[in-house]
Amino acid sequence: MKLQTVDNEISLWQSLHFRKPINPINKMTQGQGGFGEKPHKHSCELSRFAAATSSIIRTLTSVATNEAATPASPSPPAFSCGSRFLRADNKSRNVQWVFLGCPGVGKGNYSSRLSTLLGVPLIATGDLVRQELSSSGPLSSQLAEIVNQGQLVSDEIVITLVSHRLEVGVAKGESGFILDGFPRTIRQAEILEGVTDIDLVANLKLPEQALIEKCLGRRICSQCRENFNVASINIESENGKPGIIMAPLLPPPHCASKLITLADDTEAVVKERIRVYNEMSQPLEEYYRSRGKLLEFDLPGGIPESWPKLLQALNLEENEEKLSATA
Ligand SMILES: Nc1ncnc2c1ncn2[C@@H]1O[C@H](COP(=O)(O)OP(=O)(O)O)[C@@H](O)[C@H]1O
Question: What is the per-residue pLDDT for 77?
Answer without folding.
Answer: 52
